[in-house]
């Protein structure tokens, strides 16, 4: 990869990650692995953790810094700034960032609950902003990311954002008002699947299989089911019907789930997650 010319990279802009946590690393890993951005065009900043920055620099050959005096110049020279700090640190960071920016610099936020309007208010300017909601599967390149754009974002900047997140999975562009609902489906969705996997594994262990056997069977079953939907293009309901013979063992299992109101409970869980996301976002903005 080191011998490739810069012209072969999809994004040639300088990108600064303001925050160097797990989500920032997941995105950087995807960008580097897919040769989307030249590593030397990526800068990662954090407040004080030098060991963390040294680890990232060694792993990905990106540039890093936690020198407060150097950060000003770094941020001023970056075409794209990815806000990846903790929500509690966001307000101060945005207020400090605002005076440094020019109108053509793009802000990409992966901070949950912080609206575009609030970010622009903290910046003190109507900056181009892309608000995103990735999920944890981004860390292995199989993420699902929702993206909303402020009206100031240009077509070229939209292309940059979509390219960034396609490096770690799939993207869905939505109106910002739907971001909380997306959080309930894909943002927190992996946890629902993990919870069901826990139950399937527990059933097998209680029945006499080893934990290793149950885990392998469950993981492959979930992986295969997801791939069937993806590769066949058929609706999950249609695929379920194909393996659910009348009065058969699968139908008996589905009947138990129906008796427990499984379908409506999942819908209620998604809705409650969305509602809680709105509550947390409102609380965060009240603190700011």
TrEMBL record:
Q: Which InterPro entries match?
A: 6-PGluconate_DH-like_C_sf, NAD(P)-bd_dom_sf, P5C_Rdtase_cat_N, P5CR-like_CS, P5CR_dimer, Pyrroline-COOH_reductase
Coarse class of the primary localization is cytoplasm
Question: Cross-referenced Gene3D superfamilies, in alphabetical order?
Answer: NAD(P)-binding Rossmann-like Domain (3.40.50.720), ProC C-terminal domain-like (1.10.3730.10)
**Record localization:** Cytoplasm
* EC number per UniProt: 1.5.1.2
Pyrroline-5-carboxylate reductase dimerisation domain residues are: 176-280
Q: Which reaction does it catalyse?
A: L-proline + NAD(+) = (S)-1-pyrroline-5-carboxylate + NADH + 2 H(+); L-proline + NADP(+) = (S)-1-pyrroline-5-carboxylate + NADPH + 2 H(+)
Q: Which UniProt keywords apply?
A: Amino-acid biosynthesis, Cytoplasm, NADP, Oxidoreductase, Proline biosynthesis
Pathway(s) the chain acts in: Amino-acid biosynthesis; L-proline biosynthesis; L-proline from L-glutamate 5-semialdehyde: step 1/1
In this chain the Pyrroline-5-carboxylate reductase catalytic N-terminal domain maps to: 15-113
- Name the PROSITE patterns for this protein: P5CR
According to the UniProt record, what class of enzyme is this?
A: oxidoreductase
What protein family is recorded?
Belongs to the pyrroline-5-carboxylate reductase family.
Question: Which function does this protein serve?
Answer: Catalyzes the reduction of 1-pyrroline-5-carboxylate (PCA) to L-proline.
Read off the NCBIfam families from this record. Answer: proC
Recorded hits in PANTHER family, A to Z, give:
PYRROLINE-5-CARBOXYLATE REDUCTASE (PTHR11645), PYRROLINE-5-CARBOXYLATE REDUCTASE 1 (PTHR11645:SF49)
Q: What is this protein called?
A: Pyrroline-5-carboxylate reductase
Give the organism's phylogenetic lineage. Answer: Bacteria, Bacillati, Bacillota, Bacilli, Bacillales
Its gene? proC
